[in-house]
Design goal:
The complex is a heterodimer. Chain A is mostly helical. Chain A is about 60% helix and about 0% strand. The C terminus of chain A is likely disordered. By secondary structure, chain B is mostly helical. Chain B is about 70% helix and about 0% strand. Chain B contains 14 helices and no strands. The chains are: A mainly alpha, B mainly alpha. Chain A: Keywords: Sigma factor, Transcription, Transcription regulation.
Amino acid sequence: MSTTPFVTDAALVAAVADKDAGALRELYERHGAWLHARLIRRCNDPEVVVEVVQDTFVALWKDARRFRHDGEVGAWLWGIAFRRMVSRLRSRKDVVLIPDWDVPAAPQQVLPSAEDLVLLGVEYGDLAAALRRLSPEFRSVVQAVVLDGLTTKEAGRLLGVRENTVKTRLHRAKAQLRTALTEPQEGWR
Amino acid sequence: MTTGTQGWHADPALLASYLAGDLDAVTGASVEQHVSRCEACRAAVGHLLEPQLVERTWAGIRDAIERPPLPVPIRLARRLGLPESTAVLLAAAASLRGAWLVGAFLSLSFATLAAYLSGGTALAPFLLVAPLAPVLGVATAYGPRQDPLEALVATAAYGRTRLILLRTIAVLVSVLPVTALLGLALPGPRWLAAAWLGPALALVPVLLALAGFVGPRAAATVVLLGWSSVVVASTRAGLDPAWPVEAAQQGAYLALAVAACAVIAVRLGIDRRRGVAL
């Protein structure tokens, strides 16, 4: 955290609520790029991604007052962006909303360095291996609910299954992960 | 979860392969989760993304937030699913403005009140006004004098016929429901409440057909005088108050409407130049 900014994200959102375009620009500089990068992994149409990012910041401009100052701005923006993308793409079957887990990683010119792997391993324990062992239905549920932060209802709509099915699958997936890991990680309970 | 990641940052090469989509799902998700919580790595992603893309997206955001809010009728039309350009064209019509609609509503209300108070003997005011309200609305919805967009319409590659028909429909949609509701308050048989629709719907094509020859103003005057004379003459002659909308007369209106539509169709067929027929 060498570049600790002078103004926090939350303060910028408050400024946007007072119609400060400069604050919106600053928030865009901080969050536009990674939202872009994260959305493009879920949608193979770059135009749609650009529009969704635009919609998200226009929504931020209009609804900045709705931000409850109890969470992270980044997570809030991701929630807006991903929900917009899901609703926009509901009618389109040609785009991918869930990254395909079964495609083996492309031969990587740049492998994560050994140190990175160790550190990623520190964070997740054996989680990565456990996740890879999940069946595709379970993975998509984990992806939609745990990683992308949808509600079970929204995930059901996205995946085309009933909400109860999502809940059951999520429950089983978590149980499976828990047994796979000797120690359950925080945040997965 | 943050405790384990505080000292760690994804190196640029890892982020680059994340952006290129080269990471497998689990590693990608892991990087993603870290980036969404780590300020430094978010900034690093910003440096790796194409600057043009970042600026293009921002340009769209800026345009959207700097644009003044659209007027209420346009937003309403947008809600109903009309494209914005069509909504703007509609809202520019004089007879779709609030003042005109209020005026039409008031005159209709007074006519209804008169008919109501007279107990059915004086239907003339309502029968006079109800069919003319949509006709005058259509007449003022376009034409060189009334349309603030006329200069644009004349030069734009947008069919005048289409514009006129579009506005005609909009006027009918805005006026007819109110008139129908007021008609329910009329004394006398129930069918009277809907009977005025016959002349109202017949006079609109007549107006449009006439306007093709003499322009909307003159056409509106002709229709107005014609319909008034029918209503006034029937009252003078001591006929039943509902005479102008009885079955036989309705047949005549229908014939008139068909003839007017035929005239419009024939003129459209003869000369396909835009808007000549209307």
